[in-house]
Specification:
The chain is mainly beta. It is built from two helices and 13 strands. Strand 4 and strand 5 form a beta hairpin. The radius of gyration is 21 Å and the shape is globular.
């Protein structure tokens, strides 16, 4: 199947005519609605619980984190800011900012998945960034193996999401804070202000 475009807001997938030749005789695009995230996975090899849970969580853009004696699911989604970090609660001398070279960011992403419609054959969806010109610039490839993803549309969305996320990672901020002043958890969205920053306020997710 050839996916030509996706509207992620409605999960409407547009396939070319030959992609659905068995059901349609014309060459017009056909719109299909499907579930955004599903997990179709078989854990058929020996592995610890932590590794297995992480494999399952990848189907929904999530991860598993340990909090005390509990394991919590955290997923990537729009969130409100939960905490502000300033020089009042950042330990002096620990603030570090790393700017990433935009030219080194990936411009192509390949997502491997098992296609349920083809007897679970391993296939790869390849996404090229909209602003990339591979005829005049080198290919910078990033890859992902999505176990539990068994639909072309799901794999396409994940590849596009991971590529955009990777290209948006233009800087990393690291610092230390005292345990008494730390309320945010992994996955939370926080804001940071420091005298060394060029702008008034930066935001990001706790990793």
């Amino acid at each position: 199947k050839t996916i030509t475009s996706i509207n992620s807001g409605t999960d409407r997938l547009y396939f070319t005519g030959d992609a659905l030749a068995s059901d349609h005789n014309d060459s017009e695009q056909v719109a299909i609605i499907e579930t955004r995230h599903t997990c179709d996975i078989v854990l058929d090899s020996a592995s610890d619980a932590w590794t297995s849970l992480q494999r399952v969580s990848q189907c929904g853009r999530g991860t598993i984190v340990k909090s005390g004696r509990e394991f919590k699911a955290v997923w990537d989604a729009p969130k409100e800011i939960t905490q502000l970090f300033t020089e009042a609660n950042i330990i002096a001398g620990t603030f570090k900012r790393t700017e990433h070279n935009p030219d080194a960011l990936p411009n192509v992403f390949e997502a491997a998945y098992l296609n349920a419609e083809r007897d679970y054959d391993r296939e790869i969806v390849r996404i090229v960034s909209d602003d990339a010109d591979l005829a005049s610039e080198p290919e910078k490839l990033a890859k992902g193996d999505f176990r539990g993803v068994t639909r072309a549309g799901h794999a396409y969305r994940e590849a596009g999401f991971r590529l955009k996320k990777a290209r948006a990672a233009i800087r990393t901020i690291e610092f230390e804070a005292g345990i008494d002043s730390l309320a945010a958890e992994v996955g939370d969205r926080v804001a940071v202000h420091h005298r060394s920053m060029l702008s008034d306020l930066w935001g990001g997710n706790v990793v």
